[in-house]
Write a structure and sequence with these properties.
With about 300 residues, the protein is of the alpha+beta class. It has helices spanning about 1-5, 10-60, 75-80, 95-105, 125-130, 135-140; strands at about 150-155, 165-175, 180-190, 195-205, 210-225, 230-240, 250-260, 265-275, 280-290, 295-305. A ten-stranded antiparallel β-barrel has the order 1-2-3-4-5-6-7-8-9-10. Strand 9 (about 280-290) and strand 10 (about 295-305) form a beta hairpin.
């Protein structure tokens, strides 16, 4: 009995410890059950990511946004054997085009560095420049802007009973390659009441190629009218404006004195204008006033001129 009584107090302690262990186990299982979803999720993510990362580490990096240079076609091999041309023209291969160009090059005559012949209607100015580069300033000085011309025309004398007449003359005949020219004319009425004629030298002081020029005049002049007759030295000056170097138009003013310083001295003023009709033919007009002690006379003239 004593032994049974001694063993009986241990049973509650065993039961208590078993209960405590069971409770601890239950709580442990509950905690494990709560932790398992999170751990299982992490494990599943790890398993999903690990193959891709391993695959990425094993395979080289490839950028699909850039074209594969190794797979691109060769530019030479991609060119079509036929060149696309405009509609209506035959297509040729590149070899045929280059062959045609070489044929054209071989077909051209060899010049051996010689200047090709110029056409017959080529500019004479270009021909002159090819032979020798001109001195423009020297050309202005030496090349006249006005040309030598001969004249034939009609005259009208309003102060001599409205008589009609004729005139002939030569203007600016150059003496050599100088600024000295020779001019002369003869004027007469059909009824014989008016006559005039003479020749004079003119030396142009400014470059002949300019638009304006001045020349002293020295020569001989004969004048005849119903009231007087005078002849002798003819001295004066001439001013001319040439807007065109080809002689297409000019305007001149000349004032001279016949037999100056003498009692029968006569002053002669002439204003003339000319305009070209063609390259060689001009139409000119002139007005002449004679002033003497006896009478003042006037003459109008219209002439055709041929330029050289």
């Amino acid at each position: 009995m004593n032994s049974q009584r001694r063993r009986s107090p241990q049973f509650p302690s065993i039961l208590l410890s078993s209960s405590v262990g069971l409770a601890v186990g239950i709580f442990g299982l509950a905690g494990t059950a709560q932790a398992n979803p999170t751990s299982s999720l992490l494990l599943s993510l790890k398993e999903d990511l690990q193959p891709s990362s391993e695959t990425a580490s094993r395979q080289p990096f490839e950028d699909k946004s850039l074209p594969d240079r190794n797979n691109q076609p060769d530019p030479q091999s991609s060119i079509s054997p036929k060149i696309q041309v405009e509609e209506g023209l035959p297509a040729r291969s590149p070899l045929q085009v280059s062959h045609s160009a070489s044929d054209l090059a071989q077909a051209q005559p060899a010049t051996d560095g010689a200047t090709p012949a110029r056409p017959a209607d080529a500019s004479p100015v270009l021909d002159k420049w090819e032979k020798q580069t001109p001195n423009v300033l020297e050309d202005i000085k030496r090349d006249p802007s006005f040309r030598t011309r001969v004249r034939l025309g009609l005259s009208y004398f309003p102060s001599t009973n409205d008589a009609l007449g004729w005139n002939v003359g030569v203007e600016n005949f150059f003496i050599g390659k100088t600024s000295l020219t020779l001019s002369g004319n003869y004027i007469a009425s059909f009824n014989g009441d008016r006559k005039a004629g003479g020749a004079d030298l003119r030396y142009y002081l400014l470059p002949l190629g300019g638009y304006l020029n001045i020349a002293p005049v020295l020569g001989y002049r004969y004048l005849e009218s119903p009231r007087y007759t005078t002849d002798g030295l003819n001295v004066g000056f001439r001013v001319q404006a040439v807007p065109s170097r080809t002689g297409a138009a000019d305007l001149s003013f000349m004032l001279t004195w016949v037999d100056p310083g003498q009692y029968d001295e006569v002053g002669v003023l002439t204003l003339s204008f000319g305009y070209a009709l063609t390259k060689q033919v001009r139409l000119s007009t002139d007005i002449e006033k004679q002033n003497s002690r006896y009478k003042k006379d006037t003459r109008f003239g219209v002439s055709l001129e041929y330029m050289f």
